[in-house]
Each structure stands twice: as C-alpha cells, then as structure tokens.
Design a protein that fits this description.
The chain has about 525 residues and is an alpha/beta fold. It is built from 18 helices and 19 strands. The protein folds into two domains: about 140 residues, Urease, subunit C, domain 1, CATH 2.30.40; about 325 residues, Metal-dependent hydrolases (TIM Barrel).
Length: about 525
C-alpha cells in the first residue's frame, strides 16, 4: 500500500488532502518506464531505459529497446505485486540537482521553509547545502524532518557560520574549541567569511581533522591578509562566489584599488568596486594565473561560483522583470529586493550603464577562469544563493545552469556540475549524483530535452511556436523524486502560486516598479 508523506506528524496550513496529491511514496518497488537517461557523469543520453528502484535503492538500469522502435515487453523488468509503475515514455531522466548554496528563506524576506522547499523541489533540486542562515538548530530540525519524510523537503546539509551561536573568537584555541563544539552539535560543516589569519588557520585545520566540510565567502574586510590560497592550503574544501580568488591572482598590488571615499558598509560601494576586481588580477593564462589555478586543482578544491546572484549587476532590468516574479515572488520578498541602504543585496542606490558595463567585463574574466578550471580537471559545482538581488528560489538555480553554459561548459558538463560534482563535494557521491545501481532514488523527470534548451527546466517553461502558429509553453519539471518519494513538480508550483496570491490579496499588493506611480 502506498505511503503518503505528511501524515498526522505535524500541523500544516495546507490540508492533508491537498498535500497528498503532491507527493506519494516511498514504495517497496518503483519502475520508471521508457525514459532517456542523462546520467550526470558526462555520458551522452541513452534510451529507452527502465529504471527499477526498491526500498529507495536503484536495483536495475535496463536499456529496453531502440529509439522509435516498439519495445518488446519481454525485455522489460517485471513489476512485483504492490509495486508502482511510472510511465515516462519519451521523457528525460536526470539525477536530482544539488544546490551548493541554498538559504532556507529568511525573516527579512518573509519567506518560510515551506515556500522555499516547494520551489526547489519543483525545479528538481533534491539536495541543498544550507550556508548558515537562521541558525543551526532551525536547520537541523528541518533536516531531521526531511530525512523522515515528514515534510516536503530536499535533503539538507547544515553548515554553521563560523562563530555563530557563541562568544567572539579571539584566539586560535578558542577557534579550535568552537569547531569541535560545532561538530558535536551535529553540523555538517562551516561557512567562513574570514578572520585573523591565525584564527582562520586554526579553525580550518581543526575542521579538516574532524572530517567536516567547509565553504568560504572571503569577505573583503579580511581578504588582504588571507585569500583563497591560504584557505585552501589550510584545509578549506570549497569557496563561494569568487571573493578571495582575484586577490590570490594579484601581481602588482596587495589590496584592490579602493576609491578613497569607499565605505564597505555602503553596499553600492562594495558591489560596484567588486565588479572591477577581475581586471586587477593577473591576465588569463599568464604564469601566475596558471600557478594559482593548478595549485587549487592539486588541493582538490571546489569552486561554487553562483554566477546568477550577481547577474543583476550586469543587467538590472532583466533580473528585476523576470517573468516569474508576478506569480511566484512573495510581496515581502519583492519589497526586500527594492533599493535600500539597509537590506542586504538591495544596493541599487544609483546603478546605471557604467556599473553594468564594468560587471559585464568582470563576468567575462571570471567565467574564463571557471571554465578553464573545469577543463583542467577542477571541480565546479552549482549554487544559487537565492532570496537576494531579485533571484528566486528554484528559478535562480536553473538560471545558474544557463550561466555555466555561457561560461563555456557543454550542456553535459553543466549537468555534471549540478549533480555528480555537487555530490562529490558533499561526500555523498556513493549515494546520489548519478543514476547507478546501489544509489538512492534521486531523480528529475522532464518531458523535454534539457540539453537542447535549459529553459525547459524553468517552472514557467520555454516559449515555443506550434505548426498552427500558436504560442505555447513547453517543459517545466514533471516529477522530482527524492528519498524515494515522487513529487508532482507542477502541483508544487500551483501550491506556491496559491501562497503568493493569498499574500497579495491579504495585503492588497501588486508588483510595481520603484519610483513609478
């Protein structure tokens, strides 16, 4: 008998009847029939394939025929009594996506976990690394409930912001003690922002000794004495964004060329000047550029670029008018995005053509490094950092795939970045990340070929013209399967639309552009 998640284990604003239509399983046996498999390991697509899952483990991946040829039923795996068949004939199956930088909403944004998780799963995201958001206890509670299938949620890796929840760390011994306590508290890793070099060194080495993961946004307040190379040598396993990398590539300076009236607390200063950093670094393929790259690769270091979160810097109007905002962005989140001296990432005090052109040049150099890093065997993952700068959960993740493609990745390399590379970086490649016998049932199923057009993965689909001259929307994820549970991706999107509409009606809200009557 099918088990439906969200039984009477916790209360929820949405009724059991509604939720039970969005998720079913796990099953003793599940057979997904007739898909074209994109495996996540760089292999080309193959199909038709039947994928057999028993007790949330892949037990068989069988090629059952040839394209455009009728399948002989005798060649197909047999359904056991009580098993569940999912007819996915003509569809595409990929491993579940890994978001290496996913905040579970935020108080300032007014976005709670149910809203965020529904958007992630609706876009195929089955694993998320949460980089120190609302506190470790909050995240661990959601992680435990997700593991038990008590809530609609992806798999969660909980990272704690270095120093979070304790007194100020002022010595290496205090740093080591905090790291040990963080491990005892159940964290999967640490998110660093920078600190005194001796403290960073002590914390990173202790964290490495304990076998926990680590990420770092090398904040400019600390990066002049401790950049990405120092962190990687001390044991950092991955970096967020790109701060600290251009500084490691400096040849004729030790700090970036700050204007003399610069104030880091003014975020337009901070992000406008950050857009000039790559032009101050060593030139691509120069001796120093190559030496830094090769050392990071030798250290098995992971880049998580999060290109999408900075895209508004090079095209503010595009990010601000993304078509999904009207139906999927909460009023509170829309207000958070607007120009402000206070809200993080809302630095549009006076953002114009010159800033955007500078950031376009910055992106070109940044993408050159990331693409070459991949070409030389370095690990590049996919992260979104949604909830800031007009980037919406789920939708922003798909945009990140498009930007990796722009950087020069083959579509199959993009998928590997989003799946197997993320699983490797989190140390779970033996469980998820590719579709192989023995791994868990973490899948994305879509009716269109995403390699031809990543836009078919957006919840809004891709615009297409039929032979009858009719404009239609093609795509959108059909099913997301996580922990053996089948989620109706489009049903989850409908749920979010309902949440947003309810919030708008309650407030009498409609999206308006700032300064426009």
């Amino acid at each position: 008998m099918k088990k439906l998640i969200l039984l009477a284990l916790f209360s929820c604003a949405i009724s059991f009847a509604q939720e039970s239509q969005l998720a079913e399983g796990p099953f003793k046996q599940l057979i997904i029939r007739g898909v074209t498999l994109i495996n996540g390991n760089g292999a080309p697509p193959i199909g038709p394939v039947d994928v057999v899952v028993e007790d949330d483990k892949i037990t068989e991946v069988s090629v059952v025929g040839y394209p455009n040829v009728a399948i002989n039923p005798k060649r197909r795996p047999q359904l056991k009594p009580g098993g569940r068949e999912l007819d996915a004939t003509g569809m595409y199956l990929l491993p579940g996506f890994v978001d290496m930088h996913g905040h579970i909403g935020g108080n300032a944004q007014g976005a709670d976990w149910d809203y965020v998780f529904s958007l992630w799963l609706a876009h195929g995201v089955t694993t998320v690394r949460e980089p120190s958001g609302r506190g470790l206890e909050y995240t661990l509670d959601l992680k435990r409930r997700a593991e038990k299938n008590e809530i609609i949620a992806p798999r969660i890796f909980a990272y704690t912001g270095f120093g979070q929840g304790g007194d100020e760390i002022t010595t290496p011994d205090e740093a080591r003690e905090w790291v040990r306590q963080n491990a005892k508290n159940g964290a999967d890793g640490i998110k660093f922002f920078g600190a005194d070099p001796a403290i960073m060194d002590a914390a990173l080495r202790e964290n490495k000794r304990l076998g926990l993961g680590s990420a770092c946004h090398h904040a400019q307040m600390s990066v002049a004495r401790w950049n990405i190379l120092h962190s990687a040598r001390a044991g950092l396993t991955s970096m967020e964004h790109w701060y600290g990398l251009p500084e490691a590539l400096f040849e004729d300076r030790t700090v970036q060329d700050y204007p003399l009236d610069y104030n880091y607390q003014n975020e337009q200063h901070r992000f406008e000047e950050a857009g000039k950093l790559w032009e101050q670094a060593a030139q691509p393929y120069s001796d120093h550029w190559n030496a830094v790259m090769n050392e990071l690769i030798d250290l098995d270091f992971t880049l998580d670029p999060t290109f999408n979160i900075y895209e508004a810097n090079r095209d503010l109007q595009r990010a601000r008018r993304a078509e999904w905002h009207e139906e999927y962005t909460l009023p509170s989140l829309w207000r958070f995005y607007q120009p402000s001296m206070i809200s993080h990432g809302s630095y549009w005090h006076d953002w114009g053509t010159e800033q955007e052109i500078t950031w376009k040049r910055n992106f070109k150099l940044w993408m050159t490094f990331v693409n070459e890093y991949k070409n030389r065997g370095g690990r590049v993952t996919t992260g979104s950092d949604s909830g800031f700068i007009f980037q919406l959960y789920g939708f922003a993740y798909i945009r990140e795939l498009e930007l990796l493609r722009e950087a020069g990745f083959h579509p199959l390399e993009v998928i590997r970045s989003a799946t197997l590379n993320g699983a490797e970086a989190l140390g779970i490649a033996d469980k998820v990340g590719s579709v192989e016998v023995g791994k868990q049932a973490d899948f994305v199923i879509v009716e269109e070929n995403p390699l031809r057009n990543f836009k078919v993965l957006y919840g809004t689909g891709a615009v297409r013209l039929t032979e009858d001259n009719e404009v239609v929307r093609a795509g959108g994820v059909k099913y997301t399967i996580s922990n053996g549970v089948i989620y109706d991706a489009k049903g989850l999107l409908a749920k979010v639309r309902g949440m947003v509409q309810e919030a708008k009606e309650k407030e009498g809200f409609e999206i308006k552009q700032p300064g426009v009557n």
